[in-house]
Write a structure and sequence with these properties.
Layout (H helix, E strand, L loop, with lengths): L4 E9 L6 H11 L4 E19 L4 E7 L3 E12 L5 E10 L5 E6 L4 E13 L3 E6 L4 E6 L1
Length: 142
């Protein structure tokens, strides 16, 4: 376990039609954020979420082509060894009938409305390192 301090706070709304992962990555890149916590609520126009199956080492994907409420979305962003932002988000999405679905947010998830906060973490070095056992890039904090 490592510690740092809270840096800048970015708060606003993403542009309708944005891929949430790409938009968060772009914010991190443009503002030279090396590590941050991410929180979001809103509405998707198209969503892809996944459940990680450790046996197959693959995400089992569920796609939602209808609007879904972003009831909760949180995660983090860190840089990889080449300096590229890696955005890791999980979300609980609500359907019109009241059902909720949750999982890992996958590329291609488009927002219709998304209010978002990025809380920069300073004074710590975090990255993701591939783990053979799980098949995932796991968080590594020095």
């Amino acid at each position: 376990m490592s510690h740092g301090s809270l840096g800048r706070v970015f708060f606003g709304r993403l542009e309708a039609g944005s891929d949430i992962l790409e938009a968060v990555g772009r914010i991190a890149l443009e503002n030279e954020i090396n590590a941050a916590l991410v929180y979001a609520i809103g509405l998707t126009s198209y969503a892809r979420i996944g459940y990680y199956d450790e046996d197959s080492k693959k995400y089992l994907e569920k796609t939602f082509e209808e609007p879904m409420e972003i009831l909760s979305c949180k995660g983090n962003v860190v840089r990889d060894s080449e300096g590229k932002p890696i955005v890791h988000l999980h979300a609980v999405l609500g359907a019109r009938d009241g059902r909720a679905y949750g999982g890992h947010v996958l590329k291609g998830t488009k927002v219709r409305i998304c209010e978002i906060a990025l809380l920069e973490l300073k004074d710590l070095k975090a990255t993701r390192v591939f783990d053979e056992e799980t098949g995932l890039k796991l968080l590594h904090v020095e």
